[in-house]
Every structure is written in structure tokens, then in C-alpha cells.
Amino acid sequence: MSLDALKSALPDYAEDLRRNVDSVIGDAELPAQQLWGTVLATAIAVRSPVLLRELGPLARANLSPQAYTAARSAAAEMAMTNVFHRTRHLLSDPGYGRLRAGLRTNVLGDPGVARVDYELWSFAVSAINACGLCLDSHERALRAAGVGREVVQEAFKIAAVVHAVGVTLEAEAVLGE
Hints:
Layout lengths: L2 H7 L5 H12 L5 H15 L2 H14 L2 H26 L24 H15 L2 H13 L4 H27 L2
Organism: Streptomyces griseoruber
Subunit structure: Homotrimer.
Enzyme class: oxidoreductase
């Protein structure tokens, strides 16, 4: 599968999405590992089988086996921790924030790739999952590691476009007009 095939699967009313796929994925300035790890992790977070079938093989072709596994791991970990931390934040009782989380997150100690890459992927997934506490935490870690705002913004631009493409492709699979 190619990006051209993905874009051609989008309906005419989503022309802006086609252009955004070109700009945030096709013409991305991120290194390939950061780009494709972000694409894969966010595609998993979108939960669209159609999108995963299209982008999964592209990500596998552009990532080392370790990076491919680590991006999947970032999506899995954030699926858990984003719900947990978002819920603690949304509850009006601050006492939950003082309790021990008690969730295993061993992969965070050694994700198998550069810490910055894993943080970027976790950040992008947290954007899709709308966890403000996780977004702040991962953004602080990225900035402390010397990552510029432009790179951080690229990650959430990718998340936004991948999310929109996934939603649109799923709607077309059902409505198919």
C-alpha cells in the first residue's frame, strides 16, 4: 500500500485530508523512525481496522523491528495510562491523585528505542486519547530532552490527520455512498 492509495480511498469531500496526508506524512521533516512510529502508534489509537490495514504495512516497511514493536507498545501503554490518568484528573475528589496507581508500566524503563522517540509516540497517542495530564508529562519530557516545539507540534499534527483519516474511512466503509 502507498500513501497515494490511502489518499485515493478518501472521498472527494475530504480533499483537505488528502492534502494534509501529503504535508504531515508524505513531506514530513521528522526522521523516518519518529514519523512512522508516530503514524503507527496513532493509527492503533484511532482503532480503525481500515486505517491499520492501509498504514500498518507502510509503518512496518519504514521501521526497524524494534521500533515497530516499540510504537505498538506505546499505543498499548497509553491506551491504559491515558484512561487511568484522565479519569483521576476528571474526578472531583483529589484524593485519587494521592493513591498509588498500581499499574505495571515496565516498558517505560526500556522501550527498545531512543527515549525521545518513545515519548513522542506516547505524546501523540495521548493527544488522540485526550489525556491532558499525559500530554503535559510527555511534552515536558520531550522539551527537557531538547526537542523543539515544532517537533512536538508535528506529532500532534500527525495525530490529528491520522485520526481524521481513520474516522472518514470508517464512515465511508459503513455509509459507502
